[in-house]
Circularly permuted ATP-grasp type 2 domain-containing protein (Methylobacillus flagellatus), 473 residues
Amino acid sequence: MDTAKTKPFDEMFLQDEVIRPIYAEYAAWLQDVPHQQLESKRQEAELLFRRVGITFNVYGEDAGAERLIPFDVVPRILSASEWARLSDGAIQRVKALNMFLHDVYHDQEIIKAGIVPSSILANAQYRPEMFGVDVPGGVYAHIAGVDLVRTGENDFYVLEDNLRTPSGVSYMLENRKMMMRLFPELFRRYPVAPVEHYPQVLLNNLRAVAQAGVHEPTVVLLTPGAYNSAYFEHAFIAQQMGIELVEGQDLFVRNNAVYMRTTEGPKRVDVIYRRIDDDFIDPLSFRPDSMLGVPGLLSVYRNGGVTLANAVGTGVADDKDTYIYVPEMIRFYLGEEPILSNVPTYQLSKADDLKYVLDNLAELVVKEVQGSGGYGMLVGPAASKQELEDFRQRILANPANYIAQPTLALSTCPTLVETGIAPRHVDLRPFVLSGKTVSLVPGALCRVALREGSLVVNSSQGGGTKDTWILKD
């Protein structure tokens, strides 16, 4: 595996500045476009995004602080064959994770087989309330975001799985609309696969997991409200699917069913696409101080009176400690070899791994087991001596709370910066949808680290986004 010490893989250029065939048409177009024109298009995109309200709140900043996620006008381009492999690998992975979730809440065969340790049942994201509960279609993770990084021509690795309330798909959709508006001529040059049908595919999948006997299921999207960092996405996806956007106070439980308050009276709800974490979804079952959820919702859910997407308890499968075992899950449940590999990972709860990591802290990326958004992590090569020492003490205080990985040389894509076009590191999050079938729309959230040399692509840490073009055969 490549590490950050090697020259990163450039997705546009081969050696000696030879352009990869997939980028040739774009490079020819780019040669005739002055930097000032591209910058003007970028500013136009920023203005349009601000008008539409595509912002996210940043926790820990001044109340109400909102930011635009910077949008890069240079697309990331993947061939049909590259996408086919990524798509097959992501589908395989999510199928195995759904089977693992069913197993861990039922017979726990993978634990009995000694493949996954029983300590996973002590994970904070494992919900004993879900033990023995049969969810419709056996689908726990209806929407999954699989974070991928590239280090070489055919070297794609899974960095992590997002199975709780994965976000970012609104940027996949809006970035495409923006590119088609700003650069229509490019879409005449390239056979780019469409992504705009994602909301309909998602809606069809959600309807497919309604309770047996419901022929015209009512689907709603449950949001924590306007102060949530991803509220724009909640409103956008609900609008695109043509369903109601609701908050906890809009729903109530009666006679083993969930109802929505409407101007015409109560209306029964069959499927809830929830964007609220487990802890806050039902104050009678989890956090009693939660004002975001619906009292009694878990009881109705356990009794089969409503479907929740994603299921309660999915977090145990996207924990960074669990991530280590996903390749073995694929072999155990599917009898297949993993199409996509994990990044080699050290478990700091193991004495040998802990010693190695502490001895090589300056060369590794260390993450909290349940951290997200780029918080609670250390990028060793970019850290100061004091930061390394502070993090060392945090690790020693609770080694089991951390995993570590090599500092990968993430691939770079051409990106518009102040001085022109320059390479910047990127990752990729395709969204896997599970219902009667498991599928992907040919597109993804591509995040880009806009600071030169930075490997942190998270929007909360200054990253931006790009449109991802999957080419048709």
About this structure: The chain has 15 helices and 23 strands. The CA atoms of residues 170 and 233 lie 6 Å apart. The chain has a mean pLDDT of 92. The chain has two domains: 13-340+408-470, 346-406.
